[in-house]
Amino acid sequence: MKDRKSCKGQRQAHAPVVAIALGSESDMPIMREAAKALEELQIPYELHIISAHRSPQRAAELAEEAAARGIKVIIAGAGGAAHLAGAIAARTVLPVIGVPIKTQELEGLDSLLSTLQMPKGVPVATVAINGARNAALLAAQMLALSDPGLAEELRNMRRRMEKEIEEKSRQLDLMEE
Ligand code: RP5
Question: By alpha-carbon position, which residue is closest to atom 1 of ligand 1?
Fold first, then answer.
């Protein structure tokens, strides 16, 4: 694969372990959230604009070459007849996480169903419409199975979320007093 963009995070010296594919540049505002989450966790990633129907050969190459390059998880975001994640999953046994991108025409229900409803035999783990951050966190949880440090970072992230909720609830209590 050429023209891929790599993580600018602190573990840049390490080879990417997550590949993010987006069906179009127009998916970037959503898929950027996946990249941001990986950067927060210092997980090296690579980013590709690849369309299952406009550039099918590149999609096939990404899927077939990813494992040999050290990629462990692929995240694919696409909208409309969103077959990118499924087309990639068909060509690799790496876990593939699909992000259905919201569309103007059908509010993303088209993307959701075409990413989610894979016939049996070739799974795509599908997150919510525009759920790019969760896709990255799920990828991180997969990687954390063999990386105790990353597992601890994920637990810390959950603790911070819990504290934020508690703090917001406290502020609400103060306003009501
Ligand atoms: C899909 O078509 C892309 O994933 C994008 O969500 C949608 C629209 O693409 P553009 O027409 O904006 O390039 O392939």
Answer: 79
